[in-house]
Structures are given as structure tokens and as C-alpha cells.
Write a structure and sequence with these properties.
By secondary structure, this protein is of the alpha+beta class. The chain is built from seven helices and nine strands.
Length: 241
């Protein structure tokens, strides 16, 4: 993971390095792809085009992680040092640590609005009649109380559910697919593991799961990092291991 992130950061310099040197890395006979406004070639060969494509891809990846600022000169120097077999300014551990720290700080800034919105929502939601809050911060309300057994963390459960963000956007819905889902209770997000053990079979609860009991600060498909999640969950059956 750390090596890959470092590689993604360094590979971003492919196009920057070419631009900084003001000459192509190689001169294969390829057609001109595009030109500057002044009419001089910008992408002069396949290496230029591939370098620019790599830069686009990796810059967008880093931007998705919340990283919006790099020093292009240092990125280019890192590439040049590697290509010219020079001793790098940082060893592998130092480089990985710097990359991870920078991305982590950027992600914290990126997810802060979602975290603050979730905290505000949960504080108000806790005041509503019927909403219960556990020691972990999980909130739930009973829509229907069943009479069956309660699952344990090692059990598998059969559930129908609908999950949404605080703005009401639904990101997953077993009801719309027309069939329930079976999964091991110790292999899902912490909020589900805790909540389902409170539910007797036949119950339907509404869960309000803070980000630290859900997917943390990482984006997960349609779920932005730092999101508080809302689920309606119906426990249909419990299967012992």
C-alpha cells in the first residue's frame, strides 16, 4: 500500500519532467497530437502523450484523495534522480511516511464538513423520543420489535435493508433487488455488528451510524469519507456457524 502510493506520486512527474527539460525523452516517429496556441508542438511524440496521460491519471487519483497541492519541481527531481541512478534525497521509509502523512492530512480537510454535519445531526437526533444511543455512539430506534433469537457476532444473519446518506440519497437497497442478503455479522461495519446483536429475529430497526462505526474517513463507492449513515434493517433469520 505504502509503496503503491509513493509510486503513484512519483509517476505523476513523468510529464512534468519532460516539460522541465524542454526536450522529449525519445524521438519515435509519431504524428503530432496537438499544438500550443502559438503553434509550436506540445505533445511531440508517443512518449510525450503517454507521459501526459500518466500525469492526468495519477493527478486525478491524488486529487480524489484530497491532495490538491504538490511541488512540481520536486516531483520532477525525484523522477530524474531515479532515471539517472542518483542517490535520492529520502530513503524509502522517509518517502513513504511523507506521502502517507500528506495524504492523511489532506483527507482530514476533505472529510471535515461531512464529519461535522454528522456530529450535528446525531446531537439533534439523540433528543428525539424513541432514539437510543449506545456507549459507542451508535443510535437506533425500534420500528418493530421481533420475538425471535438475537444473533451473536459469530453468526450469519439474513436481512433486508436500505442505506442512505443524511441528504436522503440511497446508496444501497436490498428491497429494490427483491431478495434479502446473508452475511457474517463479524465481517461488516462495526455499527452493523453492534446493532444486529440488539435485534431479535422479526425486528425492524432504524440505525444512525457515525462515521467511525461505518467506513471512517475513506471514500467507499458512493459513500463519501466521514459520512454518517442511516439504515433501515429488518432481521429475518439467524444462522449459527
Amino acid at each position: 500500500m505504502l509503496k503503491n502510493l509513493l509510486l503513484l506520486t512519483l509517476v505523476l512527474a513523468a510529464t512534468l519532467s519532460v516539460s522541465a527539460q524542454k526536450k522529449p525523452v525519445a524521438k519515435p516517429a509519431t504524428r503530432k497530437v496537438t499544438t500550443t496556441q502559438a503553434g509550436s508542438p506540445l505533445l511531440r511524440n508517443l512518449v510525450d502523450s503517454a507521459s501526459y496521460g500518466i500525469g492526468l491519471s495519477e493527478a486525478r487519483f491524488l486529487q480524489q484523495q484530497g491532495l490538491h497541492q504538490l511541488n512540481p519541481q520536486m516531483v520532477a527531481k525525484a523522477m530524474e534522480d531515479v532515471f539517472n541512478n542518483r542517490k535520492p534525497l529520502l530513503d524509502e521509509y522517509q518517502a513513504n511516511n511523507a506521502v502517507m502523512t500528506c495524504i492523511s492530512q489532506a483527507q482530514q480537510v476533505k472529510v471535515r464538513p461531512a464529519i461535522e454535519a454528522g456530529q450535528k445531526f446525531l446531537a439533534e437526533n439523540a433528543k428525539r423520543p424513541g432514539v437510543k444511543t449506545t456507549a459507542s455512539g451508535l443510535q437506533y430506534e425500534v420500528l418493530k420489535e421481533g420475538t425471535g433469537v438475537r444473533p451473536q457476532a459469530t453468526d450469519s444473519v439474513v436481512c433486508h435493508y436500505k442505506g442512505s446518506l443524511l441528504d436522503g440519497n440511497v446508496f444501497d437497497d436490498s428491497y429494490s433487488r427483491g431478495e434479502p442478503v446473508t452475511f457474517k455479522l463479524d465481517q461488516v461495519i462495526k455499527g452493523w455488528t453492534e446493532a444486529l446483536q440488539l435485534m431479535p429475529v422479526g425486528s425492524k430497526y432504524k440505525l444512525y451510524i457515525p462515521y467511525q462505526l461505518a467506513y471512517g474517513t475513506q471514500d467507499n463507492g458512493p459513500i463519501p469519507g466521514g459520512s454518517t449513515l442511516v439504515f433501515e434493517v429488518e432481521l429475518l433469520d439467524v444462522k449459527k456457524p
